[in-house]
Amino acid sequence: MKTPLQALVPSLAALALCLGAPHASAQTPPAPGCSPADEMSVTQLYGLWQLKLWPVEGGHEAQPASSGAVLFERHPEHPGSVRGNLKRSAPGNDRQALVSGDVSNGDEFNLDESADGVTMDAVWEGNVTPGLCGQELRGIRRPAEGRVSNDAVMNFVLKKAPGWR
After folding, report:
1. Could you give the CA distance from residue 12 to residue 68 in angstroms, rounded to a whole number?
2. Could you tell me which of 16, 42, 156, 164 has the fewest CB atoms within 10 Å of its CB?
């Protein structure tokens, strides 16, 4: 049986894909009173994020290998962490996964990804982009240690969807 969040994620992911990511030239300067990137709190992760992934070797953000959305909420079992659902395109099919993670040292982002909710499939390591008020995260997604995977090591960018501040 799907949880209400699992039932909602496909609709939110479709909405995020329709909205598209804003172009760099369309980004507004940081708002007055914006906290520095190294002071980001886990609560700033809550909400819907647009996702792009592209290969570290020979890839480019302008031509993502995969795109989608992540909806983060408060982790019910671990205060100070987030849990959520990821839905993204992949060659030949769409992929869904459960994710959980946190912000450490104020600007480092860490996330574990699992397709079945038990076995870790990938790890995400990144940083808050300075000057964007915690609205963008960038880093590397790699297959979890010991996992046999067709997935390459990928760069990622997560941008907070409009309306989720």
Report:
1. 10
2. 164
What's the CATH superfamily of 4-18+36-160?
Quinohemoprotein amine dehydrogenase alpha subunit, domain 2 (2.40.128.120)
pLDDT per residue of the chain (165 residues) written in tens, 0 to 9: 444 444 444 444 443 433 343 333 344 444 566 777 788 888 888 999 999 999 999 999 999 999 999 999 999 999 889 999 999 997 777 899 999 998 887 789 899 999 999 999 999 999 999 988 889 999 999 999 887 766 789 999 999 998 765
Backbone φ and ψ for 105, nearest 5 degrees, come out as 55, 20
d(CA 84, CA 41): 16
Cβ pair 135, 154 in contact under 8 A:
no
8 A C-beta contact, residue 154 and residue 90 = no
DSSP of 72-111, one letter per residue?
A: EEE-SSSTT-EEEEEEEEETTEEEEEEEEEEEETTTEEEE
Contact 57, 152 (CB under 8 A): yes
HSE, side-chain direction, 13 A CA sphere, residue 76: 1
Nearest to 159 by CA among 119, 140, 132: 132
Which DSSP letter does residue 60 get? B
